[in-house]
Amino acid sequence: xxxxxxxxxxxxxxxxxxxxxxxxxxxxxxxxxxxxxxxxxxxxxxxxxxxxxxxxxxxxxxxxxxxxxxxxxxxxxxxxxxxxxxxxxxxxxxxxxxxxxxxxxxxxxxxxxxxxxxxxxxxxxxxxxxxxxxxxxxxxxxxxxxxxxxxxxxxxxxxxxxxxxxxxxxxxxxxxxxxxxxxxxxxxxxxxxxxxxxxxxxxxxxxxxxxxxxxxxxxxxxxxxxxxxxxxxxxxxxxxxxxxxxxxxxxxxxxxxxxxxxxxxxxxxxxxxxxxxxxxxxxxxxxxxxxxxxxxxxxxxxxxxxxxxxxxxxxxxxxxxxxxxxxxxxxxxxxxxxxxxxxxxxxxxxxxxxxxxxxxxxxxxxxxxxxxxxxxxxxxxxxxxxxxxxxxxxxxxxxxxxxxxxxxxxxxxxxxxxxxxxxxxxxxxxxxxxxxxxxxxx
Length: 442
Prior knowledge:
This protein is of the alpha/beta class.
């Protein structure tokens, strides 16, 4: 049902208003406002949250504030603040300033002003450095849990009220680093690749390369027909992110954009699916390169609907605050799907629901809508070195927690990991099982 939540607070701030909007977004049809007028608050028929240290009304949920939501700078969180947040995580009902705890998680407060020694070899903030991992809650959507508790608490204060909840969704996404393993890469790249196969004793790969180039076998990584079949079978609406670098570097090895087969493939996929840009490794430090890659995708999609190129996911998940997201906003990107860790599963921002990015240094809510992802193929197979069976089991636990929270299970897979060859032998079945678990009814 439609409801209005009125917050009493002696002080207000952009951070507080933003956090209140996180809550109402979890309950469709619900609105919120804040007041420092106690009489207005007492006389209101709205649902009441008291964000102060003293009671004001008999029928209210009181949340005692700390200072985080009233600060206007990014300061290291104090030991006592983190201890209070940890206590809210470990206790039920949760205690303390849940509003600021939610803001701390969703804003990625801990990822600002990081020294280089806390970053990995690719300049990324690893899961192992996060408070969530240190507290053992990385695989819990704690922000969604806190919001749900607030909703239930309000319902208990107002017995005739039942707030509408968000519905669980499954969103499969694919990063296309290279659409083919061997085809359309040219004579010199295949020649060098074949020599490297031989030197490293990769005889099976060499044989696969020769057969593919000779037309005797399909390219192992060209799995788009399989993806289309899975999408049709399970009524899925995936998003494809395309790597479009025009300079070959160690981490940017996509098919040259001028290849007719590649251009046709992007157009064919975009005709039936949502697509976005997969900004190259190189582009993360160069806004001009990012703009060129976005323009390149636009040229590949002359008949695409407006806004089709306004989605992104960073290659190698290179994400640094606030620089990366500011560059995306300036380049016209409106949705980003990079919010997750490479080295572990779970909830980087503590939530399985999309949210507008808050720029902490500028103290403003931006137009960039962030869609967190929770599970990546390389995380399961490479970083965590899980067996196929254990990969399915751990992913099932993630899916169950998202279904309970009413969020979006967003998976990140690559076309190459569906090849069912080499290191990915048996992982096609893993993905199909994950899809089955994801689409099962609650």
